[in-house]
Structures
1.
Amino acid sequence: MQPILLICLAAALGAAAGPALARACWVLSVPSGEPRRSRCEDCDAPPPALPRTRCAGCGRGLGPSVRWMSAAAAAACAGCAWRIGPHPALIAYLATALAAVVLAATDARVKRLPNAVVLPLYPVTLAALGAASLMDSHHGSLTRALIAMATLAGGFYLLALASPGALGLGDVKLVGVLGLLLGWLSWAAVATGVFLGFAVAAVAALGLVLTRRAGRKDTIPFGPYLLLGALLALLLQ
């Protein structure tokens, strides 16, 4: 398979998943401790079957814009295909790319990274990278990926304990998955991903303060910036 065809197929996968991702974000975008949404907030009508993303009763949009979700998923999947190529490990990166769109949108809306999305990424990623290491041990390192996962998750857990308002356990769980994916590539990718995540978050926080959309003591969701930093690190390696 030629790289351009693989990239196009990955982009098409992301675009096609857009409605389902937007719907998942609507279901999961509830404050911590509340049940998932099952009815429209305006008219209390049950949601229509997929792929519809508008309430059948009042026409309210169920979740973020499908157009933006599709575009983000298409770009993320295409980037992964361009960087990883036709290799079994690509499954892990595509699965995480699709989940990342839901996680970023949900965290931005309600400052929460749902376990229902984050935790399944661990067995999927481990299985895909494990199979990839058996088929082609020269493409990446499963050992390095596991060490990076443990190191990042442990480090972020300590940071969360030290500053619970800045980091949450959702960030700890997410960074473990990102450690697996970046660690598979190289230690440079791990370091770059973490650095860019913090750097982009700092720039965004400064921008919000300067535009008075947030105060100095306000917290911002860190998940979207972790994900963006990891994607940039992936593309830059």
2.
Amino acid sequence: MENSKALLGAGCFWGVEEYFRKIHGILDTKVGYAGGNFPDPTYQDVCSGSTGHAEVVQIKFNSNIISYDEILNKFWICHDPTQINKQGADVGSQYRSVVFYINDEQKKITEISKKNFQKKLSNEIMTEIINFSSFYLAEDYHQLYIKKKS
């Protein structure tokens, strides 16, 4: 079994985590913050819009069951990648659509996947593709939030 990771932002991390954790081949999900310039941010820090961080889900998956490309295919349809700094009623840079690639292979796969999905849309995909630098785990009460509330 090969364990791999993906780091994705697609709006509020609660719903994104709930969506991905139910997919066959996903081993673990954690919500947190990435992409900013503020060390060890809290939820309140990120919601202020001044940290540069996005709400993200770190996904650990078995690549023998589900590929990184298949995860991206699910990512494109679980939110509106044509939106800038918003998803639904959630507005702010912390809700932006973003893929943090972990290595050159993920970068290449992400760029190809984005190009292929763009062909299905009339509006331009605004998803950022950024080199991973750091991931800050969100507070415990955010982890598996929807599962705990249902």
